[in-house]
Amino acid sequence: MGRDGVTNRVLYIEDNPDIVRLVQSSLEERGYEFHWAQDGVSGLQLAEQLLPDVILLDISLPDVDGFEVARRLRRSTISELTYTPIIAIVANALRGDVEKALAAGCDVSIAKPINLRELWMRLESFWINK
């Protein structure tokens, strides 16, 4: 639950339903409103509809990669999306992806497998700074 009792809306763009279920149950237990898109194109569409407070973005997606999704969000004609915090979810083995994600417009990154405590801390830091 965010500041002043307001529920914070999180959009997770991720193609692996097992990872999504883990993150979803964890965040919903903490009072977050959780939404999921299975690929980059539907993630962009859902972001425009929902205007989430934070976007969790897998870098390795089946259609449009996470780098391009981040770039499109930052160039959006919807001003809220140009400033929405984006947390890149990157595989540990892929060197250089963190730097590419930041260059594409992501604010921070988290490595896979996701450490839920780190995720909560990252999310809470965005609410504190609101």
Concise structural overview:
The protein has 130 residues and is an alpha/beta fold.
What does this structure look like?
There is one protein chain. The chain is an alpha/beta fold. The chain has a single domain (3-128), classed as Response regulator (Rossmann fold). The chain is built from 6 helices and 5 strands. The protein has helices at 17-29, 40-50, 66-74, 79-83, 97-104, 116-128; strands at residues 9-13, 33-37, 54-58, 86-91, 108-112. It has a 5-stranded parallel sheet with strand order 2-1-3-4-5, with helices on both faces. α2 runs parallel beside α3. The longest helix has 13 residues, at 17-29. The protein is globular and about 35 Å long.
Write the layout of secondary structure elements.
Layout (H helix, E strand, L loop, with lengths): L8 E5 L3 H13 L3 E5 L2 H11 L3 E5 L7 H9 L4 H5 L2 E6 L5 H8 L3 E5 L3 H13 L2
Parallel strand pairs: 1-2, 1-3, 3-4, 4-5
Helix pairs in contact: 2-3
